[in-house]
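Re: [help] complex structure
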Amino acid sequence: MPLIQVHEVSVKFEQHLALQNVSLNLNRREIVTLIGPNGAGKSTLVRVILGLIKPYSGMVVRQNGIRIGYMPQKLHIDAVLPLTVARFLALSGVQQPEVLRNTLAEVGVKTELLKRPLQQISGGEMQRVLLARALLRAPDLLVLDEPIQGVDVNGQYELYELIAQIRTQRGCGILMVSHDLHLVMAATDSIICLNQQICCMGHPAAVSQHPAYLALFGARAARDLAFYSHHHAAEQELPVKKFENIIPIVPAENLPRVPR
Amino acid sequence: MDDFVWRALIGGVGVSLVIGPLGCFVVWRRMAYFGDTLSHSALLGIALGALLNVRPQVGIISVCILLALLLVGLQQQRQLASDTLLGILSHSALSLGLVTLTFIEGLRIDLTSYLFGDLLSITVQDLYWIYGGGGIALIGLLKIWKPLLSMTIHEELAKVEGVAVGWVRLVFMLLIALVIAVAMKIVGMLLITSMLIIPPATARYFAHTPEQMAWLASIIGSIAVTLGMVMSLHFDTPAGPSVVVAAVSLFTVALFWTVLRAGNR
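Output below.
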């Protein structure tokens, strides 16, 4: 049974339809990346899956008793709130020092960082701290909203590598929103291309050639779409992922053109 | 020392102890204007209390709670921003209170003491209110401390982690209403917000954790009340404003101390 089943979900804001008939499954050991232009409803879909927004129609079925770890898009903390990294992590409810130490090692955060005020750490460190907070809850599903935001290019590669590693080692499902089309990592099992509705979904290589994707992002974006190739030794341990067929839901010619 | 001085001291310190930690959240959540609005409605509470023949504190708490609920309801519509709504509620409540008071025949209240506080006239019954109400508020705040802190940092993250955001927010608003009713006597309705904000702002310069900031705010508030009371006794200045002047003096010292220390590095 999938961790989460999204079944024909539509979301309406006032008169505007933010999501239309979206269906998808999220499984254990599977990384799903959500892409789409600005205003496509990526964050809305994430909020529906997290249970923060009730869909206008359709439903979200969550497997009983699963825990979700959420890494929000960005965290702005006012300087008026004195908050160390350690205190921020403790708010997850996990207090055991051993769990904390292991999780910090997993995401590559040095323990010296714990005493620093949250407002004074770098963008890359912040993303890792947020990731640690999500992981502390031992999640079955990890939801990452634009995890590489505000991180330099080297850091982006490292973070993707780390996320792939987390999936291998923990076997949790991962749903990731990516704003950056130029850098979708190869470890992604399937890409969902969203523009109010699901335009196409499937393996990254296949999606990048799909007419619906090309119509949405243009041929140039497809050429530029760099798959981050990396070498993970653990590949063999994973069950071989069969290439899913692409499911075209809307013919390409019916999609709105995005001005370039 | 006379009895009334002791009562003022015990009452003032009691209010400071609870208003400091609560004020920290008002500062962290940027709710200063909300505090102002609730305290401005206190006069309406006093007027209604007089009409219905109940104690002023009961009237104040009721009106504050009603106003908080009204605000939550009004925030559901999207045409007007929160600060506009607060501006409307704040000033209409104050004016309604003043107008209603003039209609109550035979009611003689000392308006100045409600507006600016009357620290030196605290009665034993007032002390019961301060320590009873203040104690409840402090226990309530301790109960919601962690979830409230979590949602102050990131509301959606807190919700995903299982915090009942709506309830915690409601309880927090009720606690502010309770504390405002209790603190009226000390600094008066026009100056209550200053006691919610100045001690926490002063404490911020010395605190490294939220909890440190909370208890430092309590201590700084208590010192300000004591100093303000001494000033009021010696120079016969109005009690409420004297307390605020003392608080802001402490704040200024903290500010200069921090700037000088940074300069010496």
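The interface with chain A takes residues 27-28, 30, 146, 149-150, 152-154, 156-157, 159-161, 201, 204, 207-210, 212-213 of chain B (CB under 8 Å).
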